[in-house]
């Protein structure tokens, strides 16, 4: 209800603005920032979130997520001390929740780069309101993802450095033919570049916080990380160059990371894994799940931090369109897998897909179809794309569906492969479940801390898209005024 | 710092009283505990050395002085290493011959020892029963040698004692019993030792009140009694299956891996199971049975009968062949038609033989003898040679009945359980009678159900620890040679124990014989100087074992020890058929009781793993999958789908099987191919005492038997309990799903000279079963690697493999493969590198397969693919290809991503999910092969093609100045054990090698050839001798 009222109020403001400029209502794009705030308003608003003292609600949330994380750490320590045997894995099924969670978290981490890099290069101004949080989410998700390749090994204390190629007296190198080794590079690169990109974008805002920090520690830390930013034209010049270059570097990563993660499966010989459709299908799926997680988080953050002004229904509308599009892509991939299984003439391949839909793990497959293919169809309706409760529920569905997609792929191909004599079944133990809950704890704790200590909105960028950030061209008439955020 | 810490590794113990505490301590400690203030209590506590503080300080300063002036360690004892142990070179194995007796079936073995401890059991190729192979059961006895649950010392009234004490107490008790006018019964299992037989005779003569009673858990009296009445031969045949072209088994599970002479039966049977285009001949196995046994699984023709039909079925056969003896009942319908088919095969002009399960009534045995007589199967050089009998076999029902009578009348004053466990397998009556005997003693390896009711027990030594001998079915003598001194110093062999007791009871006995070894040597004729004596009257070898008899007519003790065997002349009994006797037996014989209303036939057979439970504490065997059901760790109730439907039970549903004598609760196993209304279960489980491994495993099916009943068919009630158990199976899916993983063909096709014996691969566009689909591998854009030196390869003949599991245990023993326990098998984490996949094939689904079910066994192990999918996915290069074609696993490098396991199409890689050795208790680690790494948790392992054996052969070749290993010099553990000789291993680059020709064989196929992994194992297609089979 509150949402609707606010929206109505904002719309009234908008109409007034439009009337003021003498524009026709239907020819105007929705503004990206509502309420026509001044630059100072934005600075005040965002920095007050970051430098203000944490309230009780925040502390409660952080306690819950912290406990989740701690529980996960207990399960992790137990696993490392006792062995992978405390999980439910067995002989035909060498992977289960571990790699499912890995791919799930890497997928979540996809939206960040897409929003920051690709949308930046395509001049999609609406990205500015959500890119900071999405990038933060990416980094936290990749941290969670990186836990699993390490934890799933039988001897993590060795895996932690034997997977890295380093010169040694044994002249023992890693196996560069292994997709797992490619993962090390792909995810490592992705994490590094994402972190740098995020940090670069943060520098002007950190300088802002430095100025607003209420204590010495804050001033010192924000000051240190803002790298002496004073906002000079030279600074802006370098900053924009660096940002552009990093965006360029990140763009191929959006495609490469999940392509390479999909190679973990596609390069194998297992029916159901050994398919060429995997790279594009995984990338689409990753963007799909990443945007779903952005929506889940931003719906909450917008409400709790009162960011309605910056994160508008238009943003959500755009993101939901992407969810609909990528959801259709994964739906197409699901169908195409069945077609190819039939078309290939391989009885093993055909069996695996029949078994996916009707076998022991059929429940998992149908959860996936329901969540990933059916539930986003509601976004064909513009009204639904703008309904906060609907999009929140669908985004949760998509998150669940995408987790089950990875689980279905891993479990159905492993549990019934070539020789029927070695077929088996797998279900997780409390330890695996705890570790997964733990990663959510880590992810959410980091995100909460992020909202508390860093600017959740890329202030500098949002300022640049304000209607009054640019010289007004309204009196010249013409189309340029229709796009108030246009940079010159 | 207690000296007997090793005995108290279990959970913390609380003692109820000081007496109880004393009883658990060693003799030395007992003295300390029982004396309230032992000598020297007021001195400072110095561990066992008796050194006072003052002396200690003195020594300390002196040793400091010594240490300061010299770097020499104090020498306690000089070992003159220049005079080492004969033939022993540290780091190199030594092989010793010995003999293992399974009941009265003796098999010569060759045991490998490293640094004085046995590490691997193999067959002695000079011994007629072994011919170089060994069964799973024999292989597994190695683990029992190092079993930490074996008795640690003699015990007298709850307390550890010296063996001399125990012996003298027992002897005293025997004399007391005699004084009371009562006798002593020494109960023992069947044996094959001529020396033991002589010793027992001598003891019975010297101690009139003592009588030995052979009391096996699983008796075969029916066969012996029938043979006695019909042929005048009170014993059991050991059939030579290589001499028969048509073998008709009436519920006779002679291919069972725990059958007496399993390795001999399988070896002889499979000699004619390897047809080729050049020689398209093979024997035909026809099995009539009501369950699906391992023998039935190998049948070319299976006849499904209910137990009441056996007699009529054989009667029909007898009539067809004109045996002159008729049955009391007749079969009709399908069974009669089948009998006609079988009779046609028997009368086809080829040598046939009919064998009958030991548990079937005498009438069936007598009919079979009559048929065998009529078809000329009995006689010298025939399948049933009267010269080939189990030694010391015979109808002992009278002796057992006499024992029961004496026990009932109270005439028995003392009983000694000599390596037998009637308190486990005995019926309730026998158990209570035995418990009524006032003096009970035991000589036993374990504190089992029987030993634990005894006041005194003497630990029995393992057969690898003591001297003894055994005679095999054809009269070949074998010496049981110890490889190691008894691990528990006070343990003795049965012979030694008997002798010591006799000596103590009657000092005039064995006055000149120092030990049982001396006694055996006397028996063998190695008297006086012993070692250099010459045996006279040694016969010339009858067949090819000439190596044994290098010096004809004289053999030294060393030669006997080296060869392990000695042939002596013996009179071959002549069997003459008595038709009237056969008729009489058929008339007299009891019938198998028929079930009433809602009752079922329950067939109780010995377990395919632990036999009658004697090796119940052996983890290797407990975890060895039943070859038919693939269930480990316990027994099940096998029944077909129709019976299960009637009972409304599914896989794993617990059912209660009960007779008037007792009941068991076991999970359901739905087994296609069983007769309706028949339930089968296995004995040997449900042990209560005798180690931690056997506790709580399965249910004791012996409990269903009444007095005088032996394993076989009983009439039982069966009901659903409503509980469920997840079965610990190593295979969860039982059909081939229409995949061409196992190739089959028929003898008819081979005879027809067909070039395409079977459908090759799953090629798109071809119909199921269509032949002529050859896989053509894609062109390689790179140059192929050329294997210039050796290239190791293997061939496995599915036609001769019977699924006996010998290879599985051989591999487990050779490669230090851990036992994971029941729960982990349920979890799917069994570690065996070599598994035998068993598929049920036939028209229809598992529920309707009963009549036409066929079984194939496929030993599955690392295929050492040339294009190994596991190798390229390992991120740390822990699994790589060797220049000799091996897929090698570097455990040190492995970080355990399990990607290789996932990507292995054959799923032969095993992951150490946990530290499986965490619970290993001393001295079990001495069973490990020192040439093979014991893997830690978190690493993958798999078959290495016994790379340690390859390397050993290469070193030897290099020492001999050769650049290449010769064919036959590398024998993998599985190949070595295989009684069927189904496994061929060698260098495929050597064009004269067996493997070279085997891999080019027209029956050869590669598993999953179409995914181009290029496996190095060529399987030979299974051939069925059945025209009706469509392969």
List the keywords:
heterodimer, A: 488 residues, mainly alpha, Formate dehydrogenase/DMSO reductase fold, 0% strand, disordered C terminus, B: 1031 residues, alpha/beta, Dimethylsulfoxide Reductase, domain 2, Barwin-like endoglucanases, 6-stranded mixed sheet, 29 helices, 25% helix, disordered N terminus
Gap between N and C termini of chain A, in Å?
A: 39 Å
| Amount of beta strand of chain A | under 5%
**Protein structure class of chain A:** mainly alpha
CATH domain class of the domain at 800-1024 in chain B:
Alpha Beta
Main sheet makeup of chain A: none
Overall geometric form of chain B: globular
Poorly predicted regions of chain B are 1-8, 528-553, 763-772
Percent helix among the residues of chain B? 25-40%
Number of structural units classed as domains of chain A: 1
Structure description:
The complex is a heterodimer of chains A (488) and B (1031). With 488 residues, chain A is mainly α. Chain A has 18 helices and no strands. In chain A, helix 5 crosses helix 6. The longest helix of chain A is centred in the middle third of the chain and has 34 residues. Chain A starts with a helix and ends in a 24-residue tail after the last helix. With 1031 residues, chain B is α/β, with parallel strands linked by helices. Among the domains of chain B are: 50 residues; 137 residues, Dimethylsulfoxide Reductase, domain 2, CATH 3.40.228.10; 125 residues, Barwin-like endoglucanases, CATH 2.40.40; 225 residues, Alpha-Beta Plaits (2-Layer Sandwich), CATH 3.30.70.20. Chain B has 29 helices and 35 strands. In chain B, a hairpin with a 2-residue loop joins strand 1 and strand 2. Chain B is globular. The termini of chain B are far apart. The N terminus of chain B is likely disordered. Chains A and B meet through helix 7, helix 8 and helix 13 of A and strand 26, helix 25, helix 26 and strand 30 of B.
